[in-house]
Structure to design on (668 residues):
């Protein structure tokens, strides 16, 4: 019996950015929806609620020898457990600790068949502290990676900084990940409908949206810096050559590529071919059909470290008919 | 024990049974030690008790005992009731009349796995990274392990417990808390565990669709691969000659008599289900086995004659639990949609 897939929102953000405030609102506000919330620190939320589940961020390495194939086994267990409840949920939220790498959480939804059958990763939402973000970037890779993984960003605590500073932070966010939707917030105040069950992971936005980032803030263009780029093509894609190229690319560069997504016009296919990946893991499917007379173009997006746009575009061009 | 699957009656009619609609996913089922009562763990916090005798008057449904879903359930080895664990963090002892008393409360954690040892009357249950052994009025904690315990079982004599977690299995001596535990390592996440009925082997199912078996005495291990899904259900035959595993479309049994299964294919028999076997339970005494499918069917098999019969459950929901009565004549079945069934297999 096919069951509807429950949307899962992954909530990341550096320590003190405002994740707990947001979760408390989701649990206490009257929105007529029922969300299970998987938190890493039981009791940190002021709310005692049987919808709150404690997790320990138990990460394990897959036995396939790939160091970036790490998965949250506790999430698999918890999601299987939640499915044993009679009451069903409108959504599941997974909070990660402030210093967590979002990779293992996201990869969990590519790994386990039961989890894939019952849930779908809806969006990775990252809460960014407008006042401290630029400083946090200096303290390690975490703040940068959390932005790199994001589909949606809450730029929070905007009341604590000037408009100039905000622009600077937004510029920096854009230089890391120009494909995330940014909402400016104070005290994590946001319409929940704007961030939950949006299908942000389903790539719709990618094709429609090519941000033309005004200025890349202070873009030093360091090779190691995390950035995002897109590749496009108007000629149809050869699926075999694409699979081979993408497979080899993720195999080789997986650890550096945080997110990859794409919508492809495959030669002779009536539907869009959509795919998304986290590090080395990827998933693909046929999307909506092309309309008559619609321009069939393809687009790939990469967010990661050490990305060489020209080289990638050359590789992609070789996959075209 | 007479369960002759060559009897034509099996092909013509379903065995007599009592179906009950519980309207909540079923996580586990068990018979009481005396065999008089069967219990089902439900996703609405209830433990549904039914008489094992399918002709006896039906026990009415009781109020929920747990705050969320009941995740684990065994027959109480120290009485005629049951022991249940839930996602409300509580471990309860349920008397035959349905009244419950609390054994342990691990708020914020889930009691997910319970094992019972009949001869010693001990119960082992896991919540989070620790296992707890309940014997008499005493509760002893073993752990924490490196990750949440995902399966546990007693040794044959009940003197030890084995716990599955990331990176392998830990074996504790129950009577000797000061004795360091033994560790059996294998990378990855282990998600199910069963100790063989002769005490010689511990088998686990892993996240990566294979099973791992350790010889306890030599601490050597073996790995069986090629399953299309995680093996979440393992069942040793009463004589320990075979280990049945889920996640195949037919009964799949690894031979453990003689030199063991190394280099041999598993024994496979029975009709192919529409889906895969989700739960498998070897008969407590004879050479029979019951398998429930994720596509809803139930199959009974006889490993000696390789005969089998397929019984269809009404709604096609995944079978989630199976339990044989101690005398081996009755079978309890539960599924994801809350259909509970007690079958009387004498015919």
């Amino acid at each position: 019996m096919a069951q509807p897939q429950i949307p899962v929102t992954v909530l990341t953000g550096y320590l003190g950015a405002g994740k707990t405030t947001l979760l408390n609102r989701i649990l206490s506000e009257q929105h007529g929806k029922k969300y299970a919330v998987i938190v890493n620190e039981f009791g940190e939320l002021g709310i005692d609620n049987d919808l709150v589940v404690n997790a320990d961020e138990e990460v394990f390495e897959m036995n396939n020898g790939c160091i970036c194939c790490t998965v949250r086994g506790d999430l698999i267990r918890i999601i299987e457990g939640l499915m044993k409840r009679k009451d069903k949920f409108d959504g599941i939220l997974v909070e990660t600790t402030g210093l967590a790498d979002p990779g293992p959480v996201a990869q969990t939804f590519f790994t386990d068949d039961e989890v894939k059958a019952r849930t779908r990763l809806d969006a990775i939402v990252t809460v960014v502290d407008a006042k401290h973000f630029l400083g946090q970037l200096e303290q390690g890779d975490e703040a940068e990676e959390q932005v790199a993984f994001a589909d949606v960003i809450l730029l929070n605590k905007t009341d604590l900084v000037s408009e100039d500073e905000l622009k600077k932070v937004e510029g920096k966010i854009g230089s890391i990940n120009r494909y995330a939707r940014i909402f400016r917030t104070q005290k994590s105040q946001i319409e929940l409908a704007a961030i939950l069950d949006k299908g942000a992971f389903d790539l719709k936005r990618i094709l429609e949206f090519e941000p033309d980032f005004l200025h890349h803030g202070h873009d030093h263009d360091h090779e190691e810096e995390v950035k995002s780029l897109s590749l496009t093509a108007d000629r149809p894609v050869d699926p075999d050559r694409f699979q081979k190229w993408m497979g080899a690319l993720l195999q080789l560069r997986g650890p550096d590529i945080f997110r990859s997504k794409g919508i492809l016009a495959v030669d002779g296919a009536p539907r869009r071919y959509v795919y998304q990946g986290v590090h080395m893991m990827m998933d693909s499917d046929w999307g909506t059909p092309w309309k008559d007379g619609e321009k069939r173009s393809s687009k790939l997006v990469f967010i990661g470290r050490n990305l060489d746009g020209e080289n990638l575009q050359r590789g992609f061009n070789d996959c075209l008919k | 024990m007479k369960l002759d699957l060559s009897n034509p009656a099996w092909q013509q009619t379903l065995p007599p049974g009592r179906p009950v609609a519980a309207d909540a996913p079923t996580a586990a089922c068990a018979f009481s030690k005396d065999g008089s009562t069967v219990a089902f763990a439900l996703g609405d916090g209830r433990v549904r008790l039914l008489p094992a005798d399918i002709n006896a008057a039906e026990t009415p449904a009781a109020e929920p005992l747990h705050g969320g879903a009941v995740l684990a359930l065994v027959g109480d080895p120290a009485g005629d009731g049951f022991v249940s664990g839930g996602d409300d963090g509580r471990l309860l002892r349920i008397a035959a009349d349905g009244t419950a008393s609390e054994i342990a409360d691990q708020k914020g954690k889930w009691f997910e796995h319970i094992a019972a040892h009949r001869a010693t009357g001990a119960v082992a249950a896991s919540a989070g990274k620790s296992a707890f052994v309940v014997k008499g009025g005493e509760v002893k904690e073993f752990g924490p392990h490196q990750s949440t315990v995902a399966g546990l079982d007693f040794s044959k004599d009940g003197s030890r417990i084995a716990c599955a977690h990331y990176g392998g299995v830990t074996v504790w001596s129950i009577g000797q808390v000061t004795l360091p535990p033994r560790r059996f390592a294998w990378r990855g996440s282990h998600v199910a565990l069963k100790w063989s009925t002769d005490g010689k082997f511990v088998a686990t199912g892993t996240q990566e669709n294979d099973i791992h078996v350790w010889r306890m005495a030599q601490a050597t291990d073996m790995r069986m691969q090629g399953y299309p899904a995680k093996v979440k259900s393992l069942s040793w035959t009463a004589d320990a000659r075979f280990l049945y595993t889920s996640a195949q479309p037919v009964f799949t049994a690894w031979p453990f008599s003689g030199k063991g299964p190394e280099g041999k294919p598993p024994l496979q028999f029975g009709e192919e289900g529409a889906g895969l076997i989700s739960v498998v339970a070897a008969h407590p005494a004879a050479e029979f086995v019951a398998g429930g499918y994720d596509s809803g069917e139930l199959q009974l098999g006889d490993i000696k004659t390789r005969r089998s019969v397929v019984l269809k459950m009404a709604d096609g929901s995944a079978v989630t639990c199976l339990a044989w009565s101690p005398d081996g004549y009755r079978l309890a079945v539960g599924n994801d949609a809350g259909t509970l069934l007690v079958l009387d297999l004498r015919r």
